[in-house]
Amino acid sequence: MKLRMLVSLFLALGMIPLLSPSAGAEAAKDSTLYVKKVENLPEDFIFGMDVSSVLAEEKSGVRYYDFEGRETDLFRLLADQGINYIRVRVWNDPFDAEGNGFGGGNCDIETAVEIGKRATACGMKLLVDFHYSDFWADPSKQMVPRAWKSLTDIHEKREAAYRYTLECMQKLKDAGVEVGMVQVGNETNGRLAGEKIWMNIAYLMDAGARAVREVYPEALIAVHFANPEKADSYRTYASKLDYYEKNGLIHYDVFGTSYYPYWHGTLDNLSAILTEIAETYGKKVMVMETSYAFTEEDTDFSGNTIGSGGGIVKDYPFTVQGQANAIRNITDTVVNGTPSGIGICYWEGAWITVGRNSWEENHAIWEKYGSGWASSYASVYDPEDAGKYYGGSAVDNQAFFDAEGKPLESLKVFRLMREGQETELKADALEEPTVICDLAMPLELPDTVHAVMTDNSRQPIPVTWKLTEEENERMHASGPAIYEVEGEAGGMKARCYVSMIEYNYLRDDSFEEGGAAWKITDLKKADELYVEDKKTDSLTGSKHMHFWSAAKNSVEFTVEQTIEDLPEGRFKFAISIMGGDCGETEIYAYVKVDGETVGTCPMTISGYGNWDTARVPAFDHPAGSRVTVGVYVKCEGEGNGAWGKIDDAMLNAVTE
Ligand code: CA
How far apart are CA 529 and CA 526, in angstroms? Predict the structure, then answer.
């Protein structure tokens, strides 16, 4: 049991249930992975894996193992698990003048050729992903390669893009690489290689596409965008491309998208927008990049894009099974939710840590071999981002390998979703409920918690909590606070957050909701008697009950609230008042049980800001009775108009 700071109380109350992964789930010898069959899955459906960082990883000492624990060639293992495409990014020149790599695998064309050769040797095709940049290109940046920077005429740049692409494709061809598809640009959301005008973007894409066709006439030409949740942007990209295609520029085959479940909208949306584009323009569609976290943990001392810090949980728990279910459902969407979906490609599924000792050790390795997302050398090209925030892998928790390079069961999903493997359902992760408990009332913890089952369905399962009587008493005696209580459910560690609070049984206790829960009886028809919105005149919040009346003896009213469902027990009531110019007064707070007054407390008005709090003596309330609490105000007035403010009523249970 851990005590947390009270400050987190309000955060916790509004919290969506967190999902905690099963601890130490050991990969069984026979796969226990639950995989629902994807119907209608074509034989030649593309299951791609981007492994652009793999050469840098291997140079950094990373080793990969097969399911039997033997060291293996990563490409062989992937091919055996149903991966039939390898994707690799290509940067024009990711090195500084001294030859130091920018990182991210230092992926120039030579790297792509090596990766391509190894993919080809294992019977997999290559998907070449030209960024047309010297380093990362994505929706936030599409920087021009340094060698093209001086080319201010778009036609010179177009020629340079053509020659560069031709040269690259020829190198791949000379090495005997099976290229199946080529992307002309990466996540080119309205920008490419420094160009922002669609005409110029189309020129560059066209230059790339022509060069590819000259060397690999059979290869598919793909365009690639990000943010499918912005469907209108996708409509724009597709219609712009269509316009230029009709005018003889950039003929392409595949409209590709990134789809990261944390950020990119629902699968229904993905299905709808890809279907629209496929049908409107007669294109093949594909998910070019996707991934999902199997754990919140970071293993390389370099923060991850998704994880404990981000706290974004979308549809699947961060477990090995959750990762597999995410991939299975994305595949199902592309196959059965679009008319011409040809594949999905997982992004950097093998980019794991280069060491387990320290950031310093890893940093030295990242700098030397380019196995982090960026090295400090990248500052010559991208000083504002990569050159400043360089580091390791931001996706080691989204790989298909643990930190030692052993494959996760989820890697089998590609192979298994062809036939399906519906193993016996088990709990895979537990939701973590929040319980709010009155300090004066017994703590009631839930008997069940919701489990996310291996098929991603939710169901309640019995839970036992580890909370001693002593701890329970201490929680009740220590004032408002938040506690974490641990337990066990379905063989997993369960957790529940308990907010111990002094519960106020009144509705709209500070008049912030406008006072509808309160009954006002205005006996003398005061000139003003209503809930006022004025922060400086409120005890807390911005609203309070306000009264003012000009004539003498024109103030007499009650403000009260009746509670029908108060639990049996001992309670106390308090309420505050301030005001002025009231002359002789008769003011008191009161409590009635079934219409009978059981307690009162007098109150005085003594000037602006002098809040007087009435505390009616504690009273007992039997089961089934109606409890009314309120304040009676009668002012003679001094002739200037009696005025006052009432705020912050409290009806709390009493611990005794
Ligand atoms: Ca990391």
Answer: 6
